[in-house]
Amino acid sequence: MGADGLRSLSIFGATGSIGEQTVDLLLRAGGAETHKIVALTGGRNIARLAEMARTLRAEIAVCADASGLAELRDRLAGSGVEAAAGTTAIVEAAERPADWVMSAIVGAAGLEPGFRALRHGATLALANKESLVTAGPLLMAEAARHGARILPVDSEHSAIFQALVGEDIAAVERIILTASGGALRDWPLERLAKATVTEALAHPNWAMGQRITIDSASMFNKALEVIETREFFGVAPDQIEVIIHPESLIHSMVAYRDGAIMAHMGAPDMRHSIGYALNWPDRSHLPVARLDLAQVATLTFRAPDLARYPALRLARQVMARRGLAGAAFNAAKEVALDHFLAGGIGFMDMSGVVEATLEALDADLGHENDAMTLEDVQLVDHLARQRAGKIARRQAGEQ
Ligand code: NDP
Questions:
Q1: How many distinct structural domains can be found in the chain?
Q2: Distances in Å between the alpha carbon of 177 and those of 208, 229, 235, 384?
Q3: Is the whole-model pTM more than 0.90?
């Protein structure tokens, strides 16, 4: 809380899907009248970043795209908002103290800003699941060292967090992550290899950024979430289950040793979990649809088919390897996704690229060793991107 009594906040990835929904909740909660906005960051959408920074009277706006600085300055002229650009400027913005920080940059680029924000003891609302997948032990240790708190924003992890309130983690038997199954869940297996980007983007329930929507169809998103669960809640890999729940109304469940299962339900709207993290430890009114259970009538579940979703099998391998395997897994997945989006490789080839990258880097991944630095993570990320790029290009050439 600042000297003016206002809670201070920063949003990394403000122009994205999670960022926009965070801004929406902030504006409804009084915007700049009730909050002091420290930093807002974006990637390439300079016009929207400048507009938000003016509305919220941010201290500084930073775009990742260094070539956008002149335009950002221009758009902010006379507003009193500082402008900066580039990856280093984003990390520096994270070093400005704020009480609450939203980490919603997509991909591995989100790790360092969140990591830096923990140093001044901020409450870190973590949407960037890649941070825990690539550097879970490092991030959790940094939070503990500085007395900072990490609150999950991923809807599944927010659901688990809420189902654990007042409970002892030692009484947990299983954590059950629900998955919609994505846009292609009912396609015959043999058709999946030919799925196009447009088809994979047609998510049945959630409106999200492009990359996470494709990752939902391939279940790479769920694979990241399984690893995220292991890192955030500290449970053993074999305590984590995935179940397909096409309605996306139960956001995840915790099964206790007495046989009770606590499920968290709500409409599929990310403002639930963003709002929970924003208002925590209180619950405040949120502008989300209320469930009419009589209307819902039926909830269905089915076990995932591992032949259809090889990403889930790879997540188990990553958890068994520990160390830097998560960083390699995530980087290879990001590269494979880039190649699928660009039309170079097919939908089912993405898991092949990731698996071959993990095998190729096996010796560098520090088995059963949780000791890591940010530099180790960044190095493995770099090596895995190079290797996955080569594998994907070779694959594309063969098609
Ligand atoms: P979007 O793609 O919608 O937004 C990503 C944000 O990051 C944008 O502000 C974008 O800027 C910015 N950005 C992109 N690349 C970089 C970079 N290299 N450096 C700095 N900033 C960059 O993503 P989502 O909002 O969908 O997802 C954000 C995170 O939240 C991801 O980790 C995702 O897995 C997670 N998440 C998302 C959910 C959702 O419903 N969307 C649900 C649960 C988790 P710009 O747009 O200006 O280019």
A1: 3
A2: 18, 9, 13, 27
A3: yes
